[in-house]
Amino acid sequence: MKEVTNSPTDEPPDDREIAEQNALLAAIVMSSDDAILSEDLYGNISSRNPAAERIYGHSAEEMLGHPSSILIHSGSADHATDILGKLKNGQRVKQYETTRVRKDGSTFPVTLTMSPIYDPTGIQIGSASNICDVTERDEAVQKFRVIVESAPDAIVIVNETGVITVVNFQTEKIFGYRRDEMLGQPVELLVPSRFQAVFSSYMNHFFANLTVRQMGAERELYARCKDGREFPVEINLSSIKTADTRQLVVAVIRDATVQKQIVRRLLDLNELRNEFVFTVAHDLRSPMISICGFAHELINDWDATDDAKKIEYLQIIARNTEHLVGFVEDVLQVARIEAGEYTYDIHPFDIRSLVQRALDETASASVGRQFEFSAPRDFPAVLGDEDRQWQVLTNLLSNAVKYSPAPEPIVVGLSCIDDSVQVKVTDYGIGIATEDLPKLFIKFGRVSNPGVLKAPGNGLGLYICKTLVESQGGRIWCESSPGRGSTFTFTIPIAR
Ligand code: ADP
After folding, report:
1. Whose Cα sits closest to atom 13 in ligand 1?
2. Which protein residue's CA is at the shortest distance from atom 7 of ligand 1?
3. Number of domains composing the chain
4. 128 and 170, same domain (yes or no)
5. Cβ–Cβ under 8 Å, residues 218 and 228
6. Which residue from 223, 337, 359, 426 has the fewest beta carbons nearer than 10 Å?
7. pLDDT-based confidence at 87, cuts 50/70/90?
8. Are residues 71 and 173 both part of a single domain?
9. Domain span at residue 167?
């Protein structure tokens, strides 16, 4: 194929060569996918290629000799005037982004290159335009933007000098910076200062070995937001090459705070479960060993054992069996509560007499313990499930007995605050450290007191109390001081 440019020799081309070159140029123009047009100095179209007819939807007759303004969107007329000024000065207009209009009135985005054209004597006779329809490119960019903007993770694109060039909506949301505060800044802006050195060397290494990878899979990663707060993240890195062959790194950053909390919670639950299994095994084992031992004693030595001993052994068996039954009931109650199968029989009742009965019963089972009760004489009825409130109160009383020594008294007080009655159970026992208070009301939550032997229990009582109280519209909490005692308070709505 002959070159379109002048031959390498300085000989001027002959007519045949010029004709061949012109034919070749014409073929290139005619087969181009871009619209190619020329216009005279008055702005009338003087030639066009088939792509121009296809792109604009005008036939050759509708274009040739007509003003090129029929192809120009009215909104971009100013640009056209501006362009014409440049062309008149002999300047070329390159890769100009603008809008053109089709015959049917629809508009489309284009990149436009225009050059002045001259006759053989060097006089400017018009201009030539190359118009590339970039509808598809713009649609692809639009799709890319929608995907990036709607991504649930932060997406940050960084150039090879480590400068942020693109961020999405989620980046603004997670990091707290506005977009304009991040664009053009070094990516270290988003990295805690103690990790910046490691991070920079990691990025350099990544640019040198571009592969999709999870960043720092072997260590915990943290990001830093505008207010200086750090949060755990997972980062995936990949690279893209731009049209001008620059490498960009795409970092997809996921806020791992919730995930880390879930893992922490699962680990805590696992620890609690292990402790529960140990406690249950221990709690079940000792009463069962005791029941088994005294039952065998009676079977083997029935005749040789006097009646008083027999009764003592049977009482031990009965006490241990009750403990086992109570424990199994607690576990079943928790299972029913959690399965949502628990129902409440709500009605107005007299809380004063309920407390008095609970105190009498606890006192008769706790020989040598002293109980005090204070309540105003006229007291309103409360609204709740009497049996469940009884369960809460007796649980708190039995804990007070369990975790405080005789002869310290146990004090119960009633008062009205706003729309509720407050029931306070105070003991002067071992107390609970402030940092242990949040553990009290969670399932299997037990507290160890240094130097104090752990009382038998399963850590379900207060969890059940909290569920029962809150299900009836009340609250429960504890104030305590180690070595000085505890006050457990719960509320019940007043009946109106
Ligand atoms: P349990 O007593 O069966 O272990 P609870 O849920 O009733 O279960 O109590 C949870 C934990 O709270 C107990 O193991 C104990 O460590 C602590 N606790 C409860 N009541 C008191 C109290 N009055 N004084 C000190 N510690 C208490």
Report:
1. 446
2. 461
3. 4
4. no
5. no
6. 337
7. confident
8. no
9. 139-255
pLDDT tens per residue across span 44-84:
999 999 999 999 999 999 999 999 889 987 766 556 667 77
Please tell me the residue having the least CA distance from ligand 1 atom 3.
457
In a shared domain, residues 329 and 452: no
**What pTM did the predictor assign?**
0.49
Please give the Cα distance from 485 to 482 (Å, whole number): 6
Question: Ligand 1 pocket check: which of 462, 481, 487 to mutate, most ligand atoms within 8 Å of Cβ?
Answer: 462
From ligand 1's centre to the CA of 446, what distance in Å? 6
Ligand 1, atom 8, lies closest to the CA of 459
The residue ranking higher by pLDDT, 26 or 54, is 54
Question: Which amino acid does the sequence have at 30?
Answer: M
Which residues surround ligand 1 with Cβ inside 6 Å?
A: 395, 399-400, 403, 427, 429-430, 432, 440, 445-447, 457-463, 486
CATH assignment at residue 404? 3.30.565.10
Sequence-separated contacts (24+) of 179-186 with Cβ below 8 Å: 181/226, 182/156, 186/162
Q: How far, rounded to the nearest angstrom, does the alpha carbon of residue 122 sit from its chain's CA centroid?
A: 68
Q: Best mutation site among 284, 393, 440, 443 for ligand 1, i.e. most ligand atoms within 8 A of its Cβ? A: 440
User: Cα–Cα distance between 381 and 159 in angstroms, integer?
Assistant: 72
Q: Is the dihedral of CA 126, 127, 133, 134 positive or negative?
A: negative
Atom of ligand 1 nearest to the CA of 400: 23
